[in-house]
Request: fold
Amino acid sequence: MSELADTATKPTGTKPGPNPHGSFIWYELLATDPDAAADFYGKVVGWKTRDSGQPGIDYRLFSAPDADIGGLMKRSEAMPPPVWLGYIGVDDVDAAVAKIKQVGGDVHLPPTDIPNVGRFAMVADPQGVVFYVMRGDGEEASTAFAGMTPGHCRWNELVTSDQAAALDFYIDQFGWEKGDAMPMGEAGDYRFIDHHGEMIGAVMNRMDGKQRPMWNYYFGVPDIDKAAEAVRANGGTITFGPQEIPGGEYAVNAVDPQGAAFGLVGPKI
Reply:
C-alpha cells in the first residue's frame, strides 16, 4: 500500500461519520490485472468501472446503477494475494487501530490520509483476517452495503478459526450484536450478526483446518443462474451453489480468474 501511504497528510479529525461506527462503507478488490478484473465483474455483476481521479495512483471505482460500491487497484508485491477487502467505518481511525493492537490484532498499514477522501488503516483481527478501518471526509452516507439491492454488497460473511473469539473482537471493536444461530452440524453454528437493528452478515468456523480465515462478501445480482454462468464463461470457478438460502433466494461462492474469492446472492428467474 506504499502508493497510498505516499499521499499521507495531517490527521483530519474525529467527528462522527455519516454511517454509524462499525458500518461496512466500502469494498476493494486487489487484483493482479485490473483491466481483466474490471471486465470480469462487469459481465458477472454488471458494474461499470471508471478512474477515481486520485492523483498518482491507478485506483478505479466499481459502480452500480445508483452508486459507487467499491474500488479496484493493482496489488503490489507487499500486498495480499488477489482478494476482496472490506472497509469498516469508525469515528476515530487512530483510536480504532490502537484498540485493535491492544487486543492482539495486527496493523499492515498505519493510519494514513488520502486528500479529500478520508483517513484509513489496513489491519487484521487476532485470527489474521485483513480488513480496513476508515473515517471518510464526506458527509454523504455510504450505500455500498445494501442488504436488498442488486449491484451492492448484500452480505458480509466471516470465516474464522475461532468463532467465539472473533465475535468477541468485532462486538467489542464495532458495537455489533449476536443474532440468531443456524446449526451447521459438525461445523457448528452459523451465527448472524446485527448492527443498529440490521442484519449485516454472519460468522462461521472454517469448514476444515486448511481453509484460510477470511471475510467473504456477497454481491447482489438480479438472476443468480445467469450470474453463475457468467462466472464460468469468463474464466471464474463456482466453488459452491447455487444454494437456496432463507428467504427464497440463492447464494453462490466463487473464485475469480485471478484467485479472489467472492459471493453472489439473488433470485432464480
